[in-house]
């Protein structure tokens, strides 16, 4: 219980210390989602038709259980998301990467928004239901991880800039870096859980929804 309380206190202190940054990063991500959803309306009829054709092919494969093997989907999902947050993590150390971190998070939100928006625009409530079972389950974990890594990366980048430009040395750098490494390690564990959901849970839910929509 003592260890648990220490972890809880550390988490609460972290959130309180970076509350304004969490609000800013979350709003930025939501702006990306909204922009992605709006972007769907800018597609030409041909582009929209081509995308929907490939989407229909994919859903046909899902209903016939011809999609990639579970393990392949798991490794691909984990590899993709880990590379993404690792890049953000490195940018946090590099000092000059602060604006790129924000752009990457915005793009992540834009992809989610575009995917959901396209499904809904093409399939109505059926598209919303497909989005709910294919995108939401793993992103319940992935999105908070991305936001936390973005906050920590931006925070570290700001501290590094303060050290270089303002000569502000308020605390030793080594403990900060160690916490930063720990955050990445814990994030990878959570992304592995999200990958397992995407590979082993979402396809079954999608298959049931596609079968239901085809009736």
UniProtKB/TrEMBL annotation:
Pfam families: SpoIIM (PF01944)
Cell compartments where the protein resides: Cell membrane
Keywords in alphabetical order: Cell membrane, Membrane, Sporulation, Transmembrane, Transmembrane helix
Residues annotated as transmembrane: 21-45, 84-107, 114-135, 141-161, 181-201
Membrane topology: Multi-pass membrane protein
Main location: membrane
Domain of life: Bacteria
NCBIfam families per record: spo_II_M (TIGR02831)
Assembly and binders: Component of the MPD complex composed of SpoIIM, SpoIIP and SpoIID.
Role played: Required for complete septum migration and engulfment of the forespore compartment during sporulation. Required for stabilizing and recruiting of SpoIIP to the septal membrane.
Protein name: Stage II sporulation protein M
Protein source organism: Peribacillus huizhouensis
């Amino acid at each position: 219980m003592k260890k648990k309380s220490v972890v809880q206190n550390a988490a609460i202190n972290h959130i309180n210390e970076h509350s304004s940054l969490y609000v800013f990063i979350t709003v930025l991500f939501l702006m990306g989602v909204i922009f992605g959803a709006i972007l769907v309306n800018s597609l030409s009829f041909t582009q929209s038709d081509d995308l929907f054709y490939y989407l229909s092919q994919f859903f046909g494969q899902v209903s016939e259980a011809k999609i990639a093997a579970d393990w392949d989907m798991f490794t691909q999902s984990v590899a993709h998301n880990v590379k993404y947050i690792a890049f953000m993590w490195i940018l946090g150390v590099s000092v000059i990467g602060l604006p790129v971190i924000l752009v990457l998070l915005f793009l992540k939100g834009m992809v989610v928004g575009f995917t959901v928006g396209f499904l809904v625009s093409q399939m109505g409530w059926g598209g919303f239901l497909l989005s709910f079972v294919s995108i939401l389950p793993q992103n319940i974990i992935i999105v908070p991880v991305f936001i936390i890594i973005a906050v920590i990366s931006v925070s570290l980048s700001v501290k590094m800039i303060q050290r270089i430009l303002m000569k502000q040395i308020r605390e030793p750098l080594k403990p900060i870096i160690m916490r930063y490494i720990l955050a990445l390690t814990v994030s990878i564990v959570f992304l592995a859980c999200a990958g397992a959901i995407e590979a082993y849970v979402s396809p079954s839910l999608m298959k049931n929804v596609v079968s239901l929509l085809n009736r």
